[in-house]
Design brief:
Blueprint: H1 3-72, H2 80-111, H3 115-120, H4 129-137, H5 140-167, H6 172-198
Length: 199
């Protein structure tokens, strides 16, 4: 091979590697943008789920308090109509909070790309109607038991979100592309080295 051919091959290899590099940089940049958007949506989904979960806990407390208050209020009391309105409002808030939690949970599962998080399962053990009824009809110990269950469920939900958002990796695909680029660069370098050895 003449010196001119070697120079021509080296220039061609340089041009090809430059084009490949430019394409890969464009792909990585767009992928990074997509990953950042997806990461933001995942974090938002976790935050909305946690907020909905905590809102439902507060709604359960209000629900029980309103029903216990109306049960203690004499029917002929001047405050009975206010207590009735309070019960209606608490029931409506509880229903809305449960619906919002359903939607937030669905969004969380839809946006989660980490299989281990989905397999770990979203803590969905909600306080049931029987526990609410027992707290409404029972004594103070039943109310305290319900409040303790709600606090424990809240702590578990907070821990779940903290662990899940640590596992959200916006750099995962970027690392994959870095590996592809380094392999492509090594391959191009070996081609150039073989051309140089032939000359």
């Amino acid at each position: 091979m003449s010196a001119g051919e070697v120079v021509g091959l080296a220039l061609t290899a340089g041009l090809v590697s430059g084009v490949v590099g430019a394409v890969l940089v464009a792909v990585i940049t767009s992928q990074r943008h997509w990953d950042a958007q997806r990461h933001g949506r995942q974090i938002d989904a976790y935050a909305e789920w946690l907020a909905a979960r905590l809102t439902l806990s507060r709604a359960c407390e209000s629900f029980v308090a309103a029903f216990r208050a109306i049960a203690a209020e004499p029917g002929d009391s001047a405050y009975f109509s206010l207590r009735t309105e309070e019960v209606r409002r608490a029931r409506s808030q509880w229903c809305d909070a449960a619906r919002q939690l359903d939607l937030a949970e669905a969004a969380l599962l839809a946006w989660s790309t980490n299989r281990s998080i989905v397999e770990r399962k979203v803590p969905s053990d909600r306080i049931g109607a029987d526990a609410l009824r027992q707290a409404i009809n029972g004594d103070e110990r039943d109310v305290d038991r319900l409040l303790q269950e709600l606090r424990t469920a809240d702590r578990l939900a907070i821990d779940y979100v903290r662990n899940a958002t640590v596992d959200v990796d916006p750099q995962g695909r970027l690392s994959m592309w870095r590996g592809i680029i380094s392999k492509a660069a090594a391959h191009i370098e070996s081609i150039v080295n073989r051309w140089g050895a032939r000359s």
